[in-house]
Specification:
By secondary structure, the protein is an all-alpha fold. The protein has a domain of 60 residues. It is built from three helices and no strands. The radius of gyration is 18 Å and the shape is extended. It starts with 27 loop residues before the first helix and ends with a helix.
Length: 88
């Protein structure tokens, strides 16, 4: 048969940088928000976006924003600071 590399199950990777699969627990309300947002995006302009793509975009935007979150002591502090920056 030959020594051809075996294809892994699932879709071929589409990423142009290294990646690691992680598991994150989200609350049902957060999943609902992500699902409604991706559905709204699809309805408005026909673009298909997964939860994972949306989460990666949010993390990249936060990284690019150069907001110093080092003084935060809790997730509530992070939320408060981000909302403050977004509303200014």
């Amino acid at each position: 048969m030959g020594d051809a590399p075996r294809r892994r199950p699932g879709r071929p990777p589409l990423y142009d940088e290294t990646w690691t699969k992680v598991t994150v627990v989200l609350f049902d309300r957060q999943i609902t928000f992500l699902d409604e947002l991706t559905a709204s995006i699809r309805t408005r302009n026909g673009a298909s976006m997964s939860r994972a793509q949306l989460i990666r975009a949010l993390v990249d935007a936060l990284s690019d924003a150069n907001i110093d979150l080092a003084s935060c002591e809790s997730p509530a502090d992070v939320k408060r600071m981000l909302l403050s920056k977004l509303s200014s």
